[in-house]
Amino acid sequence: MATLLKRGSRGAAVRALQDLLNRANHGAGFTPLPLKIDGDFGEATDKAVRVAQERLGLVVDGKVGKQTSTALKRAAEDVKPGRVEPDKSAMLTPPPATATGGDLAVPPPNVDSLDLLDTARAISEIIVHCTATPEGKDFTVADVRAWHKARGFSDIGYHYLIYPDGRIMLGRPIGQVGAHVQGHNTGTIGISYFGGVSADGKSAKDTRTHRQRSSLLWLVQALIAKHKGVRKVTGHNQYANKACPSFDVRKDPLGALAA
Ligand SMILES: [Zn+2]
């Protein structure tokens, strides 16, 4: 769905959307179900789009662009965890004392293909996380997505994720409210780096590679430039009694970016 679909749109793309809406909302108890697959974006389709946008934490405007169609596809997807999620008990320990410094914001290796989308969703804060996976393990965005979907989320909970080699990956669309900190999802962006636990899986550890730190700084700077309302950058452990992201954002160069 490359073009924006809205009330009055017709044709094959609308038929595909209607089918997607029926699948994405299946079991969610929304009425009327199912939509007639007639390729006519009329009142019923408009209502179904708005109900889905509301339910998925998207901006409710009845228009289906890249972010709404992505969110619908992810909600409709039935993904099964390939690899078991590592034990997260290490996150219950206090964050380790870390001292980082001298990092510079450097564009990620995949900067040319990275598309930081805009949103009408008001953003006031960026919250940093770790995936709570052991250092040196090559878990992927698909793994984390499957774990989060298994918890009942419509998609992966974070908006951006950073691989050890510094690549920045898209999670759920930026226009969709995240699922990363209880009580602090509205108005925030969730970023997670892969790692945060020692290789033996036993303790919280700031496992960020030099490239992850550089990409994290670059991404947070880029998001602050894009979303003018951002007033602070924080870590999950400032809101919950857990180690995530396994360092103190307030003592990291990240913490000063929005000041
Ligand atoms: Zn977290």
Would you give an account of this structure?
The protein has about 260 residues and is of the alpha/beta class. The chain has two domains: about 10-75, Muramoyl-pentapeptide Carboxypeptidase, domain 1 (Orthogonal Bundle), CATH 1.10.101; about 90-255, Peptidoglycan recognition protein-like (Lysozyme-like), CATH 3.40.80.10. Helix content is about 25%, strand content about 10%. It contains five helices and seven strands, in the order H-H-H-E-E-H-E-E-E-E-H-E. The protein has helices at about 10-25, 45-55, 65-75, 140-150, 210-225; strands at about 125-130, 135, 160, 170, 190-195, 195, 230-235. Strands 4-3-5-1-7 form a five-stranded mixed beta sheet, covered by helices on one side. A two-stranded parallel ribbon has the order 2-6. Helix 1 crosses helix 3. The chain is globular and about 60 Å long. The model has no long low-confidence stretch (mean pLDDT about 90). Zinc ion binds near residues 129, 180, 236 and 244.
Concise summary:
This protein is of the alpha/beta class. It has helices at residues 12-24, 43-55, 66-76, 141-150, 210-226; strands at 125-130, 133-134, 160-162, 168-170, 188-193, 196-197, 232-235.
- Report the sheet-strand fraction: 5-15%
Q: What is the name of the CATH architecture of the largest domain?
A: 3-Layer(aba) Sandwich
Succession of helices and strands: HHHEEHEEEEHE
Query: Helix proportion of residues, in percent?
Result: 10-25%
- The total of helices stands at 5
Count of domains? 2
Measured between the Cα atoms of the first and last residue, the distance is: 39 Å
Ligand identities:
zinc ion
**Form type:** globular
Q: Roughly how many Å is the radius of gyration?
A: 19 Å
Enumerate the strands of the largest sheet in spatial order, edge to edge or round the barrel.
4-3-5-1-7
Q: CATH class of the largest domain, anyone?
A: Alpha Beta
Find the CATH topology of the largest domain: Lysozyme-like
What value does the average pLDDT take?
Answer: 92
| Annotation, overall tally of beta strands | 7
Uncertain stretches: none
Structural class: alpha/beta
Query: Biggest sheet, in brief?
Result: 5 strands, mixed
Instruction: Give the full name of the CATH homologous superfamily of the largest domain.
Output: Peptidoglycan recognition protein-like
